[in-house]
Amino acid sequence: MALQARVAVAEHSSSSLYAGFIPSSTNHVRLSSSLGSLASSSSLIQGDTLRSLSNADIGYRIAGPKWGRRLGSPCPALSFPVKASASATSPKKVLIINTNSGGHAVIGFWLVKELQSRGHDVTILTVGDESSDKMKKTPFSRFSELRETGAKTVWGSPSDLSSAVGSASFDVVLDNNGKDLEAVKPVVDWAKANGVQQFLFVSSAGIYKTTDEPPHVEGDSVKASAGHVGVEEYIASLSFSCWASFRPQYMVGSGNNKDCEEWFFDRIVRDRPVPIPYPGVQVTNISHVKDLSSMITLAIENPDAANGITFNAVSDRGVTFNGLVKFCAAAAGKEAKIVYYDPKAVGVDAKKAFPFRNMHFYAEPRAAKEKLGWKSTTNLPEDLKERFQEYTAIGRDKKDIKFELDDKILAALQTA
Amino acid sequence: MNFHSVVPLSLEACTMSNMACASLKSYNGLHKIEMYPHFNKSSSSLLAQPIRVSRAHQRGGKCTITASTSVESKKILMMGGTRFIGVYLARLLTEAGHEVTLFTRGKAPITQQLADESDEDYKKFSSSVKHLQGDRQDFDGLKSKLSGSGFDVVYDINGREGAEVEPILDSLPDLQQYIFCSSAGVYLKSDLLPHFETDAGDPKSRHKGKLDTESLLDKKGVNWTSIRPVYIYGPLNYNPVEEWFFHRLKAGRPIPVPGSGLQITQLGHVKDLAVAFLKVLCNEKASRQVYNISGEKYVTFDGIARACAKAGGFPEPEIVHFNAKDFDFGKSKAFPLRDQHFFTSIEKAKKELDWEPEFGLVEGLTDSYNLDFGRGTFRKKPDYTADDMILEKLGKKVIVAA
């Protein structure tokens, strides 16, 4: 008789109210008001019956072959997803080690809010000093919103966590900071020594090897030299009760630290041409950060289901550069003019001239969907409308911006 | 006959950890679809029983497709079935114990022996499959041929227009299921991909007839299922997909690819498609549902050229990119695939039908090469008119065929 297991998973939505949970704070999470096409009700639902579980599905280790139909090494202690419901999942004490800059900073900001709204007890440790200039940018400048939910905000160093959090104990630690073993090992070791049950790591989808066959799916080859890979392997080797890794790509969402859609808005509102590396059909994945927040939350609330899994933390749609320009223009209510260029031919560093990797860089969240019953709620055209509203609300459309690299590109194309 | 001719493995030869791999790969004939989850001998209490579609030893015997359901023998009418998909599907169905009748005009042979099919297996198949001669465009003739025929299920493999469905439905009022071969070509082009089954269709597309058929089936209240393949490939493919590349690779010619070659599409092996068609038979979950069926991964145009080269044991191909707008190829087609991103998510089928593709791309193209092109068989002679125009314009030496 084939093994079957029912997994009850919470369907996440924009509402902060979940059946069975009493939010620990009266302040609701200010999530995007735009509901994606996959937006769901806020009631807890019974997940679909998973297809017959094999040992391969359970406790798959990243060192093994492709997850899913091919085999990983069988998990010594057979476990299968437990029935998780609002009442069954007890509140967790979560420590997030958060980066103080870059694209991933916003993940911690949203995750704290979501976890607090679901009754969990969160401490977010931002690396560095509270007085640092870096803290003047979002999301850090808005950390009062986190304290309003009841979360603790502290500052410190990953290599001296005891100083920052004292004798506090945690069920879950999420490292959303390090890119290599040097940065993360101290956190991992501290967590292991302090009885942390579940260790989560925000890795990167950038570690996948380029391929003729997109998308990047969990189990595909990764660049052995990538720092994140060493971290994932180290965590896996330490036998936490549960561990998981999340590989994001690009995100939009209020409180972001690194420009994403802004790059396009900057040009569109000023009626400037938008220079796109030829041919513009490159596919990338732009998620609303709430997708990552909901995925990590599901993993925290269903640790057995998430155990030993690397998750692509992305939305379930790829978008082309051309498409992204179109959506940004629509959000801004304007027409956009695209000019294509070859970075090498015009002599610019594509990494500096354009916010996304100049290639297909496209992962899909297959593990999260299959293992956690997770659903994406990113709706890029709608999300960008909301982002544009904030873009203008903070006055960025009036900001005086220099477009040096753009001008260089345009000049080169003129003379071509 | 090996369904999976590339890697013939015997179960005994496999180590424990490879067991499931082996079980998935060692198709001993099309009829045997073994899908057991890996089982760990040391925890025998958790031993999962193999889920088999076994060769029916008796006519009309029961067969199990899933662990929980069994499909009793059905009288099946297949519209078409002599060229490509049906060739494999009819075999799966007869082996599963169903009675299969192919409805064709009779212009092509009703059955053909597969390259890796034993004479014995072929004899068994060809003697068990039935033929009903007729022209499905002759609606009145079709109705009179089907009235009172007692078919339980229709597999409509070659239907194109909604109107073609009506005479069949009218003459088979007790029909249990109408399974339609549609196309992912119905999807409206989008900047957000992949296409999910819930995405909008394009009422202006070349495949609008397929979309109309799906709507009509839904309106008629019959229990219907629609399958939307993307690009199908495999031995006996009559659409020059892999064949187009193989011709050029064999001739040592460069492969002309429009644009950047970064366009992403999706190829699905015909045998995986046939299994999907089998999985929806009398499957409650599939009632009034649409499923995208294709390969697990997508592939760029340049990637297809490289994968075909690997499959046929050719050296790394020379790919020549050209701007299609610079040419007027007339009637000659410069490239066999639509010049755009075109791929779908197969997660619905994987989740609901407990189906998944067995062939990876290179694996599947190798199967196609070994059982078809590599043996010297193909459907269309190569036409290098467009190739030569491109090469000339780009200042490349035009190769004269040896």
UniProtKB/TrEMBL annotation, chain A:
InterPro entries tied to this protein: Epimerase_deHydtase, NAD(P)-bd_dom_sf
Superkingdom, natural source: Eukaryota
MF terms in GO: UDP-glucose 4-epimerase activity
Gene Ontology BP term (one): monosaccharide metabolic process
Single GO cellular component term: cytosol
Ranges of residues in domain NAD-dependent epimerase/dehydratase: 102-312
Pfam families for the chain: Epimerase
Protein name: NAD-dependent epimerase/dehydratase domain-containing protein
Organism: Ceratopteris richardii (Triangle waterfern)
TrEMBL record, chain B:
GO CC aspect terms: cytosol
A Pfam family that the UniProt record links to this protein: Epimerase
GO molecular function per UniProt: UDP-glucose 4-epimerase activity
InterPro entries named in the record: Epimerase_deHydtase, NAD(P)-bd_dom_sf
GO BP annotations listed: monosaccharide metabolic process
Cited Gene3D superfamilies: NAD(P)-binding Rossmann-like Domain
Coiled coil (UniProt feature): none
Ranges of residues in domain NAD-dependent epimerase/dehydratase: 76-293
Identification of the protein by name: NAD-dependent epimerase/dehydratase domain-containing protein
Organism the protein comes from: Ceratopteris richardii
